[in-house]
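Reply to dn_fold:

You asked what the input looked like. This is it:
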Amino acid sequence: MPLGTAFNSLRLLLKNLNTNASTVPAVKKIDNDKPCIFPRDEMIDYLPRSNPKKEGIPNEYIESFINEIDSDLSLRNNRILILKNDKVIYEKYDTPYAKDSWNCAFSFSKSVVALALGLLFDEGKVKLDEPVCKILGNEKKILVARNKKITLRHLLTHSSGISFNEMESASSYKWVKDFFNSKGKFKLGEKFEYNSMNTYIISVCVEKLAGMKFEKFIRTRLFDPMGMAKTYFDVSPEGYFKGGWGLYILPEDMAKLGILIMNNGKFNGTQYISSDWINQMTHTQFKSSKFNHVFDYGFQTWVDDKNSFCTMNGMYDQNVLVYRNSGVIVVTCCSNNDAFHGSNIFNIAHKYFASKELGQFPLCKNKGNHDVKNYDNLLYYYDYLNGKEFKALTKISHTCGVLPLLLQNELGTYVQGIKSVVFTKEDENYAFIVNEGNDTHHLKFNFKEGVRQTHSFYGNVFDTVCDGRFILSGKGEVYLLIRVFFLEYPSNRFFTIKFGKTHNAISIECSENPGLEFVRSLIEIQDKNTKKLIRNALNAFNHDLIAGKIRNIFAPTFIATSSDSYNMTIYNRIKNKKPSKK
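and this is what came back:
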């Protein structure tokens, strides 16, 4: 790792752990990552629909699969599609998630980069064992001799051994330069080590070989002909598609790519990519390290040759699972605390669809809705809050914001801290107004299905739904829970408002999901150098305070008070009446 990026990465970690000051990016951002959402008036080209029984699978078999996923409390599946014979035979969108909202694909993007390279491979423009520096024309600028020998095959199979990784890219403007001038951890092609920057360099190569921007190339050659009219590609500070992540895509269009893989490069009767390339891409090219990974690796795709299975996989379980034996494709958009494929969703899907024949086991019954119950009889508590401004008193509010911390880090966009909040009523809806420094976020919500809005946070645009719930603690205390769902992401922000012992005070807990459990799983899969960097950041604090610090990062709570006048009749009613659970 170059010294400058190492220092900035450590500085960023320390900033994230400091609850006494607002988090700031290690380098100044030039452009916003996400200036748009999926256009609401955009026509979606839907795949044909059928039902399980028509396509040879009993309806109750599919229902059992869904029930088993829903009953596993470790899984948070937001959107799911199941396909057979190129048709959608089942689809489920958990409230408030919708068909017409993008899904941030994370590392699913890697497989899309491999498909783009396959288009060039079929034209004879790609030699997998040719040094990449010859494609990029940067051989003379590379200071580390071994890196001049890196080939596309090394990049495709994550066997380059380059130390410059995704974490360090957050502290760099020049990704290509820092990639090739970073140290190698092992001999080229010696072993597998997952690194998103390998994919980034492939995406740069695609642009050089195609003679046009990655987005234009993949749209023209693949996405538009397949009816995938609207996607978004996030770019690096250098202006290239990030490759290893950065694709925003509809679940419907994720399914189309699954069909392309299942049919060996063919979609709707047209052969877009050769079966030769798809075969290489979706079968074992490199044995992965079983310490962190369940599956082996093809070209930018996880594979299990024993079960004739492959998956285009992204963080938090954004998946297209392709089961060739049964002909079933499963699309999942999840919020699981999983960086790769360690969640139970793979075990359940394998159980039902890995074999050609249907599994012989007791079918799972529906175990009911797991959503948070709202106690309508407690709505009068809002009258106590309505029209009042509460100002934050403690420094811990400096790291709180509407954007979840993990989402802040993913986008390199950091909050200025909550200064005050205001509660109001607006016709049939309510509003929670959050003042963060110079930015004010007006979150409309209701206590039903939620209110869908487009919000801009520091120049980035988000598709959101906000709802409210009055809930009771185990001790019978009344809390107001305001939930902000970022529909394109796994991340959600939860504000839990607790009523104070005095009439002018409340406490606000800002929790998020995914959160701490995901960070723990992410740390476990890092290489030893990155783990050392994280340990150094943690060692900057008293070890006895670490647990508290971690909680303050992912579920900070602060006190806020109001000087506005109160209806003491309402306050006394709240104070003296024990809430009923009826």
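The chain has 18 helices and 22 strands.
Hope that clears it up.
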